[in-house]
Amino acid sequence: MGTTTAMITGMITGMTTMPIDDFILRAALAGFMVALAAGPLGCFVIWRRMAYFGDATAHAAILGVALALAFSVSVFAGTLLTALAMAVLVSTLAGRGWAMDTTLGVLAHSALALGLVAVSFLPRVRVDLSAYLFGDILTVTWGELALIALGSVLVLALMLWRWRALLAATISEELAQSGGIEPARERLVLVLALALVVAAALKVVGALLIAAMLLVPAAAARVYARTPEGMALLAVALGAASVVAGLGLSLHWDTPAGPSIVAAAAAFFAGSVGGAGLVQALRR
Q: Does residue 257 contact residue 31 with C-beta atoms inside 8 Å?
């Protein structure tokens, strides 16, 4: 742990002249935990073309925040249950042949609007919605870090446990069934993993940017990865690098931390695509 702490501190120190404090360490660890879970899950989101699915689940998190505050329960629990309910609803509708592009758009924006309206009916609760919309990683406490770590570890465990089955069901549901794999069960695993990531990442990048943390590092990794496992590992590495770069930018330029992390991930994506294009041009 001491070596890890020194490494994280050294990386961020190299990007900013500000003194390193515990809050920065907690923020970096929280970001790393989210990157660890979002990397492999983001690969499946891309392979299965579930980008809008992730948006709908993430936007439901605001409704979960409102319900948690209204009933005085843990925001993590409220977010997790609401995101899981939305994910199950979307998965069920998809299985019944609904036009999912329209349905997902309606559900995503409706859940977000309902959450924002619901918060306005809580006069006794003072809450900064921007912290839930765009994240507030620099205020993560040790208790919240423990919850984020728990959610991320559970997602990673699910991914490792069902990796081969998930890959088979992603490539071809018919072939997966012939091999004794139930595609509906694998979809349920992805639904549960997605809900856990939404609950874990809400404090880090916020409901509006969770889908970006799933998609952008994985999309950047796809450019150079030759195997599914390689893409997942590279997505985790790029996600972690985005956390370090984003926190450094936030501390140095006083920009919002969550959006800065996503902006750094976008820069890595642009660099990977541009680098691949340059390599191809040189080969020609």
A: no
- pLDDT score, position 54: 84
Report the sign of the C-alpha dihedral through residues 176, 198, 243, 267, in that order.
Answer: positive
Residues 114-142: tens digit of each pLDDT: 988 988 888 776 677 788 899 999 999 99
CA 104 to chain centre: 18
CA distance 31 to 201: 8
Nearest of 67, 47, 30, 7 to residue 166 by alpha carbon:
47
How many whole angstroms separate alpha carbon 174 and alpha carbon 137? 42
Query: What SS3 string covers the chain?
Result: CHHHHHHHHHHHHCCCCCCCCHHHHHHHHHHHHHHHHHHHHHHHHHHCCCHHHHHHHHHHHHHHHHHHHHCCCCHHHHHHHHHHHHHHHHHHHHHCCCCHHHHHHHHHHHHHHHHHHHHHCCCCCCCCHHHHHHCCHHHCCHHHHHHHHHHHHHHHHHHHHHHHHHHHHHHCHHHHHHCCCCHHHHHHHHHHHHHHHHHHHHHHHCCCCHHHHHHHHHHHHHCCCCCHHHHHHHHHHHHHHHHHHHHHHHHHHCCCHHHHHHHHHHHHHHHHHHHHHHHHHHHC
Q: Left (φ > 0), alpha (ψ -120 to 50) or beta: where does 189 sit?
A: alpha
108 phi-psi bin (left φ>0, alpha ψ -120 to 50, beta other): alpha
Residue 274, phi then psi, degrees to nearest 5? -65, -40
pLDDT in tens, 149-188: 999 999 999 999 999 999 999 999 888 898 899 988 898 8
